[in-house]
User: What shape does this take?
Amino acid sequence: MTSIFELPDDLLASLITSFPCREAQINALATLIHPRIAPCRNLVVHGTEATGKSSIVSDLLQTLRDASSSDLNYAIVKSAECVTARHFFERTVGLVGDALRNESAPARCETLAALTAELTKTLKYTEQDPRSRFVLVFDGIDRQRDAPPTLLPALARLSEIIPNLTTIFIITTPSPSLMRICSPPHIHFPPYTKAQYIAILSRTPPASLPNTTQQETTELWTRFTAAVHDSLARPAARTLPRLRQCCATLWPRFTAPVASGTHKAREFSKLLIAARAYFQDESILEPGIQRARRDAPLAEKKKSSSGSGTDLSTLLPPTARHLLIAAYLASHNAPRHDNALFSTWHAGGKKRRRGGVAGSSTPNGTGRGRRAKHRRIARKLLGPGVFVLERMVAIYVATRQEWIPGAEDGKGGVDGDVGMAIATLASLRLLVRVGGGAAGAAAGAGGGADLDRGGKWRVNVGWEIIRSVGRSMGVEVEEWLVE
Assistant: This one.
């Protein structure tokens, strides 16, 4: 005697053949969806990208509807095709009406309450036929744009209001409180393993190579797919469609020695050595993407010894160069000299910027400003000091009008370009974060730019570089240093 919980063997045979390595998921879905076995109200289907969730659910519903005639009907709503929440609601109502061949035009549906009312009115036939079942699938519902926070809990309660309704949620990663109801059944689609990848790809081997039998070609293809998986599965082919595309792209190049007669199909090791360059060059897989030049990246030019200043002067944008000079001045000038150097009102409307502003002496050799006798090393030759980010930006704003031609008063404030320039300098390690707690230290070490105005920084370039950068802008940095 056949149990009512067993499906006919031939019902899912074609589906299992089309989707190998997913037999357990297909049987579980069929059991929880079929109206004559163990249908459930809500079902969560989750897994990473390209694991067969949407395709299997769609084909399974089509197969079950063809087998059960009028007992099962379904509609699939794809969130990727819905721009707003209102679009999602109205599309759901429209697809349900199309599945039921409802010729009336769908009404406006802007809220969850209106959606519930429309679906209740459309699916009221289920009260008259308790054996029928309607399956409503929400594909990618966790990525729905402009979704209200109560969307998933409200959709999960539709089956409590509408009899004989099964709601399937296809998502990537479910959270513990996903629907705020008793835990519904979950079906996990795990990523394919290496053995499963090889088994799936081996089902459709390519045509036989010249002077090679089909069996030898199939064996070579199996070993080739394993090699492609080992070399490209993590960096470039993490999904089954992508891995299949990589194999199709590399196969003609890999088997070229066999076609030319220089190697045999059984000499896999020699073929692998001859084609090892193809497994290391991503441009073969993506010919439309130009690879970045490796001969002169900006970070390496910054570290070069001879022409580093000239390279920075050429490659850095004007705002970044200006901020780099301001950072150098903030590192090598004491804060007490900022008024004398950068303030217009401090010197009667004209900035005094010749070296030795604070270190000059009176004619008779006395006075508070007399140069200290123990200082014998120029300030620019000493190591850079620590400055506050707000001070560097203030120096940038104060010198903008004089250093940048065409800059007017009122237009030299801090904008998005300044923040982007600071982030660029920090990522290139031209500016280094040296304080501000563990979070700030971690940001500085990782090349990020925490734009806290109280954060402490230090310039990371020498005098020769900063002098070349300044001269590229027509600025003699030495005139702005206090000796």
